[in-house]
Amino acid sequence: MTTPRTRELYLTMAAAGIPRSSVELVRSAQEAGWNVTVLCTPDGTRFHDLEAIEDLTGEPVRVAYRAPGTGKSLPPPDALLACPFTFNSVNKFANGIADNFVVSLMCEMAGYGVPMLVVPNVGPQLARHPAFSASLATLGRMGVDVFFDADAPQGERLPSWERVIERLGRLGAGEAGAG
Fold first, then answer.
1. Helices 161-169, 22-31: inter-axial angle, 10-degree rounding
2. Which residues form the Flavoprotein domain (predicted)?
């Protein structure tokens, strides 16, 4: 009898305020059977409890490229979850502006065909900006699943972690889609 292989998840986080702890998101993903590697934008480090996340995962949160010959490589991912993701990071990713480690890695993983779920946390004013809707359309054409309801009330735009993890579990199964 062989033990099932643990699914590898890259969780990328940006500088978005969230009503629930990102630590709880990591824990929810782990409880769903994912081994979680967390990566964060430089500005995002001020928005998330990196020390608690590192305690939970047993690994440092990656914020920058590692120098050649130092540290260990990341395990290859089965999926990537970008949550929470900002207006800025969504637009950068969609347009290939890889000016930080997280967005650069996401662009590379898109090239590998890694299934991705992007969960923006964007207010109504920014959600109405034409660049944002164009970026969401670009991500859809790239095969990225975007979990965002622009018509939801402000306090309900970010889905519950349970809904995020449920949707993540459907990636690659042909069930996820825009909205």
1. 40
2. 16-167
Partners of 8 in beta bridges: 35
CA 101/CA 64 separation, integer angstroms: 5
CATH topology of domain 7-169: Rossmann fold (3.40.50)
Pairwise CA distance, residues 110 & 106, whole Å: 6
Q: CA separation (Å) from 28 to 11, 17, 25, 163? A: 12, 19, 5, 10
Instruction: Tell me what pLDDT residue 5 has.
Output: 60
Contact criterion met (CB below 8 Å) for 101 and 67: no
pLDDT digits (tens, 9 = 90+) for 49-96: 999 999 999 999 999 988 888 878 888 999 999 999 999 999 999 999
Phi and psi angles of residue 161, each rounded to the nearest 5 degrees, phi first: -60, -35
